[in-house]
Amino acid sequence: MTDAEEAADDSLATTAYRRIRTAIILGRYADGSAITEGRLADELQMSRIPVRSAILQLGVDGFLATSPRRSARIVGWDRRSINELFDVRLSLESLAARLAAHNAGQGAPITGLDHALASAHEAVTSGDRLMIAEAHAAFHARIVEMADSTLLTSLTRVVSGRLVWLFYLTGVGRDAREQSHEHDELLAAIADGNARLAESLAFSHIEKGRAPSLDIILSGG
């Protein structure tokens, strides 16, 4: 296989990943339902090779439970999975906020974080739930990037995809503007280099979303 062919396969796999992930987030497949490589290839009008790659990545990111027979099951939400996500976020993202603030205090630029928050505000104005979910998750991802920890980035990658899904599902019952305001406060603490305040604000912001998320998702929205 030539380099060009490998690049084309990678591009198709990325496209397949994004389209399947979006379909899952939007609820086009029921929680727990089985989907096969062949079915997805037909729906996406692609060969099975990029779809197979997308399925494997979606398994890593927590959207699918895969099996050796090239079928997969949608991994939905229950009380345990929601609580586990919040517990992990509290540890990883609070650390990320502290490290990001420390780095800002040492002169690291916050331009990327500024842009991410501006995009999140624009998304909130649009009222598009998926766009808001993606933008808010992107803001949190930028904080992790600014923490400049290879291991932390690797660990948070596992939960970042499902975070978009969580934000989308809870978008019907939570005030997106209020969440953006909390992001403003968090960004200000990071920009000031106030590591402990940034860590505290991140912890509070995440924990504040636990109870409403449980209520909204477990009640069916």
Do you know the CATH topology of the largest domain?
Four Helix Bundle (Hemerythrin (Met), subunit A)
CATH architectural designation of the largest domain: Up-down Bundle
Number of strands: 3
Query: Main beta sheet, described?
Result: 3 strands, antiparallel
Q: What is the straight-line distance between the termini?
A: 47 Å
| Helicity range | over 70%
Q: Note poorly predicted spans.
A: 1-7
CATH top level class name of the largest domain: Mainly Alpha
Structural class: mainly alpha
**Taking Cα atoms only, what radius of gyration do you get, to the nearest Å?**
18 Å
Task: Give the CATH H-level superfamily of the largest domain.
Answer: GntR ligand-binding domain-like
Written account of the structure:
By secondary structure, the protein is mostly helical. The protein folds into 2 domains: 3-74, Orthogonal Bundle (Arc Repressor Mutant, subunit A), CATH 1.10.10.10; 79-218, Four Helix Bundle (Hemerythrin (Met), subunit A). The chain is 75% helix and 5% strand. It is built from 10 helices and 3 strands; from the N terminus they run H-E-H-H-E-E-H-H-H-H-H-H-H. It has helices at residues 3-25, 37-44, 48-60, 79-105, 111-126, 129-147, 150-170, 176-191, 195-208, 210-218; strands at 34-36, 64-66, 71-74. It has a 3-stranded antiparallel beta sheet. Helix 5 (111-126) runs antiparallel to helix 8 (176-191) and helix 8 packs antiparallel against helix 9. The protein is globular and about 50 Å long. The N and C termini lie far apart (47 Å). Mean pLDDT is 91; it is low at 1-7.
